[in-house]
Amino acid sequence: MVKYILKRIGAALFTIFIASAITFIIMNLVPGDPFMSEKAPSEAVLKSLYAKYGLDKPLIIQFKNYMLNLLRGEFGVSYALQRNRAIKDIILESFPISAKLGAMAIAVAVITGIPLGCIAALKRNKLADNVIRILSTLGISMPGFVVATTAMIIFSVKLKVLPTYGLKSASSYVLPVLTLSFYPMCYIARLMRSSMLEAFSQDYIRTARAKGMSNFIITFKHALRNSLIPVITYLGPLVGYVMTGSFVVEQVFNIPGLGRYFVKAINARDYMVIMGTTIFLATFIIIMNLVCDLLYKLVDPRIKLGEEN
Amino acid sequence: MMSESLKKKLSLQIDVSADDFKPADKQEQLDLIQFTKNTSYWKDAWRRLKKNKIAMIALCVIILFILFAFVGPLLSPYTYDQQIRGDENMAPCWKHPFGTDLHGRDLLVRVMIGSRISLIIGIGAALIVLVIGSLYGAISGLFGGIVDNIMMRIVEIIYSVPDILIVILLSIVLKDPLKKAFDTGGALGGLQKLGPGIVAIFIVYGMLYWVGMARIVRGQVLQLKEMEYVNAATALGAKKSRLIRKHLLPNCVGTLIVTTMLQIPSAIFTEAFLSFLGLGVSAPMASLGSLASDALDGIQSYPYRLLFPAIAISIIILAFNLFGDGLRDALDPKLKK
Lengths: 309, 337
What we know:
The structure holds two protein chains of two kinds.
Chain A: H1 2-28, H2 43-53, H3 59-71, H4 87-122, H5 127-139, H6 144-158, H7 171-200, H8 203-210, H9 215-227, H10 229-253, H11 258-268, H12 271-299
Chain B: H1 4-10, H2 26-32, H3 41-51, H4 53-70, H5 72-75, H6 107-143, H7 145-160, H8 163-184, H9 189-194, H10 196-209, H11 211-224, H12 228-235, H13 240-251, H14 253-276, H15 288-295, H16 303-331
């Protein structure tokens, strides 16, 4: 077990390195440079700027310096958006907002998605099942911005019951969290339904029934626990989805999180911010995937991961 | 003495007469041969698919959308980038059924063009994934051993790198160089119309998104290569490339089609997401994502500008999802749940 965990951590660290390297390489493919904005600075100014940020050195040295700085938690400074502000500060300021929103969305998705899937499986081919199936299929077919903007039109523009933007009161969390959790909720409900139906067709369920166990115990102790496993494997990608989904949701609802800042950086072509944020988010997602993988192993002792062949 | 009938009843022997040993005549022989129609894999699948009402409706919707997106703009009196003076900010009416935007462009045509972009992206990206993923997976599965090990390690790394972030980065970075390449070279004329953002998406799909397909194909090939016919082909001196082309890939065609079909909505999603962030098509070209993004500014006064592209994209993705599900049930009955 310890060996397995160490191996996985090693693999995750390697992936983080690869992701950072890819990001660095991609960002340096850009012809032109970060200081070529509307008015080009003079030759001398440009030179001193280059020296200041270490951009006059060969690319490989820049890469080494950048990676070493990353290890110290330094992501460099913003060139365009908020000149000379440390990207670390930007992340520290805005990421907690996104993380809070994301955590709430994940909680809502899991708490509502699992029971919905269970109900659908238990009432197979009845009205409840059909309604849940139709709604969840619709849900996974709507891009995040469609859900977000439609919800905003209905609840904020037409009914005027919820605020359109910002995060001032508790009620302003409702729309962003719900729209962010809508897709994963539908996805989890579908996943849960099919895995629960599969669990019900297993031999151990028939045995339990033959022994005369109550339906309640069969459903909750045997079927539910075994059908939760696919949902747990989905948690890793879910974190990734919520982080990227927040780009859209924060943009629509004007929430000052990291997602909106990232989009702003894209539009302002602030390469350092884009690079830093990407590496930060990638690292976060990879770590979360690692945690989910380990959790998966803990939950289901039957799975022997890592011991190939 | 027992009567003849009782003897018959008690006997365990089958009652046979001398007649039963006569050779069968021509008519009898012919009757024995029954001609059942030979149902091929495709006929069987099509029969199952036809029974699935939801999938058939979805297929009709897809065909209608293809007509809407590719024939529709030809029938419209306007073009997607035509700015009609005096018709700015119109609500839906007879002249402009979907209304117009603030430059006076007809939204119906723009939604048609946007749907066209979505369909091109979805199908194009899925085909790229199909080609790269199936070849990679088949090679990896067939060769096995150290080749397989290295190839699957690469897949694992790509799999764990958050792809959507890389997509965003590449579309930022590739936009300008591609624009330049389009402006100078005439050979890429067809792609130029789509714009660099779309080409960037294709490149990213070619680089990152094929890994899921590769894994599935590899799993299938590992099973298939133990089959006798593969053995026989090898014994007859078939090369590996022939094995892959003639034996392995044709035998997992069901899986290939289903996985490709389900790739289409995912690609459409990605394009809409990028366009919404302002990274997809470049103006004046329209995509459903960019139309929605543009509509966000005037959402209080012109909600219908958002409504039409949003509905269009949701229906397209829904239809592809449902049709993909139906196709999976029809082509791969084992997978049905």
